[in-house]
Amino acid sequence: MNTAEIVQYLTFRLADELYAINVAHIREVLTVPKITRVPRMPPWLNGMINLRGNVIPVLDLRQKFGLGATPITGDTSIIVTEISDVFADDAAESLILGIFSDSVEKVVDKMVQELQQQLASKKVTITLSPSARSWLAKEGYEPAFGARPLRRLIMKEIGDVLTEEILFGSLAKGGKVEISRENNKTTFSYL
Q1: Residue 65 to residue 23: CA distance in whole angstroms
Q2: What is the pTM of this model?
């Protein structure tokens, strides 16, 4: 019996680089609220936000890493993280801060990998395009429920179609599938 602990990560982009944070350290993901600037702070410390009465500093890691300032777009999010044991003198203290993200890709890769493992016995392999991955991340996240709706979305948009193809179509004997997102539709290329 395998007793290995499964660890899930939230992946996000800064410029064209992919980063990850253990989901255990994430409190929530927000659309960008009003940020209050703080004088005499380094440029990568964008300011503070009021999150239900708590003052949270917001960092622009993209700027800190020399990738330029984060442009605020419809895809920009703030990942609110909590890091424990930051202060050596008090193990009970934790640091809560917000981090700008160009786009959050959530746990899409992890959940698609779970689907891939289920398909392995049918000799079916899947490849997800960046456009499909980004769309699933955006549509599968709901602030009230986190990433839980993502699993349902993956099953509806991908799993149900592949099940039909395995039972009655192109994947009856196995095969490879490239999944993409074009013209607001999920597309499948069977190889």
Answers
A1: 22
A2: 0.57
